[in-house]
Every structure is written in structure tokens, then in C-alpha cells.
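This entry is listed as follows:

___
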Amino acid sequence: MNDFAFLFPGQGSQRPGMGSDLVARHPELLERYYRPADELLGFGLSRLCLEGSAEDLVPTEITQPAVFLTSIAVLDVLRGHGITPSVTAGHSLGEYTALVCAGVLEWTDALRLVRRRGELMAAVNERTPGAMAAVIGPSAHQVEEICAGIRERDGAIVEIANYNDPTQHVVSGEGEAVRAVMAAAKAVGAERTVLLKVGAPFHCSLMKELEEEFTDELDQVNFSDPALPVIANVTSAWISSGADAKHLLRRQLAGAVRWSDTLQAIADSGVQTFVEAGPGRVLSGFCRRALPEAACHPAGEIRRIDRLLHGLEQGVSLTA
């Protein structure tokens, strides 16, 4: 018997046509999720997910609900095949899907929040353009020291936004400061630095101004206590209640995603099989590097879900 952790991806996992193979196999998803999402948001999100180009999916206010909706469809298909998690977590906006999975949020409420979150984040970037970059190689301590040095030298905002795995950390902040971190990281031997194509400087102090306005949005939604264990990004600890979940989503706007610690917390709980329930394979890569002994299964496409089901039907252990 396998205990699964479901991991839900965030921005950066989007791709053209995501979910189209799910809908082709399971057309009931259209009426269950895609058409209600269009009606709820007042625009054709389903078309953008299923038929949109890469350019269509670039704006943050589109990307975030699109990734969320696709992940909800994947979750439905997995549950329909009897694959359910014993714990769950989501990376950045993926935390909203994890909260739906854990019974904390209704999916329609989560979709509204994700859409509004994306709009607010995009507006911050218009006022104070920022950037994000992945730094590959140096330790978290090294990257933290580089950021601190640039903040002290230039008085600029730049911080670690994502602790993704032991060798990859994403920095976020003002554009020149982020580029300065990239240069300094290369000088101390970084394997690679990559300027990310994102719509805003997520998970840094530039997002602090959103907290009050987004709290008003959160207060309009019912948060139930978790029906299964779910971990928060900003603490890498278990969420204790619906009220705790709401508070932590507010903190998440400007707080770092402690993903490597989140994966370790799940492994420490005894779960060693991870299913990436959404588009892409980004989280599976982080999982393999952070927990080389664990089993990580991307399941964002029908062929990958079929492979997972085949392994289960054949009695193959998915924990090694």
C-alpha cells in the first residue's frame, strides 16, 4: 500500500495546451470545472488553458488561475482512479490547490483568490518593476549572504524567494539588485544563474504592500480546518486550522517558499512517494534533488497518469 504526497505546482509550470489531453479523455471536466471557471471569472480561461499560446499564458493574472484550474482537473482525474494523498503541499500558488485538496477551501473560492492574487501582483510590478533569478550551485547561506551584501551596499530590495532544493535558490526584488546577485553568485562559482520570465517579483518585500488589500479578499472566503495534513510555504510546517491557513496565505505574498524544507518535512512524516498533480515536471525535479531516495511521479498528463496507474495495477512498489 502506498502513502502518497500530492504536490501542486505554481507559476512557471504552465505550457500551451495544458489539460487538453485530460479533457479529451474525460470530457466531463468541461462542465465540472472549465465552463464554471469561465463563468465565475468572466472570461475564457478554459480556452487559454486548452488552446492558448505561450504568449497568452505569460501575464501573471492569467498564468496563476490557468495553472490552478489545470491542477484541479488533474486532482479530479487522480481521485477518480482512487489515487488519494495522505499529505499535500503546493509551491507558491500551488498552495491554494493543496488547500482545496485538503478540504480547507472550495475550489471556486480558491480560483477567485488566485485570480485576484495574480492581478494584485501584476499591479505591483507595474508600479515597481522587479525581477527574479534562479541561482544554481551555491548553498542557501551563500545566497543569503550575497543578498545581504547587496542590500547593505545599494539599499535595494533583493531576497531569496524560493528555497527550491539544496542547490537551487530563486532571488527576487528590484531588477538591478537581482542582476547584481547573479553576477556575485557567478563570482563565487555558481554553476548557472537564470533570469526568470515572470510577471512580478514574487515572495519578497516588494509584495508587502498587498497584504492589507488581499486580507480583505481572504476575509470574504470560508476556511475550514484541514481534513488531511497540509504544509504551508512560509513555515514548512503543518497547517493547524482554517484560521491558520488564512493567516499563512497572507504571509505567503511577501514570504519565501521553503520548498526544500517542506519536502523534508513530508519525508520525515514517513511518506516517500510524491505525485506532482499538475502541469509540468518542475516539482519532480526539486524532489529528486532534495530527496534522492524518494519516488517522484509527475502526473500532469494522461500518459503519465496511465503510467502511474499501470505501476499500481502491476503491484509495483512506488516507494523506491
In short: The two ends are 13 Å apart (CA to CA). Strands lie at 4-8, 87-90, 130-136, 158-165, 168-174, 192-195, 230-231, 273-276, 295-298.
